[in-house]
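The following record pairs a protein chain with its ligand, farnesyl diphosphate.
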Amino acid sequence: MQTTVKYNDGGQIPHHVAIIMDGNGRWAKSKGKHRVFGHSQGANSLTIIVKHAILRRINTLSVFAFSSENWKRPASEVSSLLKLFSLSIKRELKELIENDIKIQFIGDLTKFPASLQKQMSQAMEKSKNNQGLNLNVAVNYGGRWDIVNACKLYMQDVLLHNKDINALDEAVFKDYLSLPCDVDLLIRTGGEYRVSNFLLYQSAYAEYYFTDVLWPDFNEADLDKAIAFYQKRERRFGMISEQIRGQDAN
Ligand code: FPP
């Protein structure tokens, strides 16, 4: 869909990159392996991409690791994914902290086993003062859930803390979402052209980059291609080209 353009180190770097990491199952099957093997390779790709995001000075990286709908998968796959999350936290936390990464798990965490919830909160607590990359891992997450949840939280403030309902506007509302910051570049791997309920509100003005590369194969060069695509976009936010370029618009 996109023409290949070269990454420019002096060019604009997206502040917030979101990734729908799709294609683990197909990648594994193409190698005659079980889908779960694809997820574990997917975890390795994530480590590589996190390091590269830091190198490219990306401020915030949000990844979709488990959607609210993924519970519908075979029980054995769901349980393997939860084990993988737990294992990855154990294995990677020390390095995340050493690399000044602030990790946040977003989504309805209450549905996970207590031990996993504890690991997630400890990881968030231990890294909360870090100043480097903000890494958001969406688990049991859905964009619609996020919006409804933000409405509920605001209503609670109205009912319990005398918040004025008329004070609600877009700027106030975003702070009730699991992430307040707009997505600049949304990447989806695995050849599908949909958003699948990821960061719906936050991606209103995102640039969308779709690639056929399956997530376990997605590497540093692929992230650079996505950034290069972003660097060629003219983000108009409803305006016209001449306004963006500071030219006479009449
Ligand atoms: C989608 O591929 C991928 C997932 C539902 C799981 C994503 C999880 C990881 C990449 C593991 C690493 C995450 C962490 C936080 C350690 P798919 O299974 O839908 O692939 P398919 O479309 O080929 O079936």
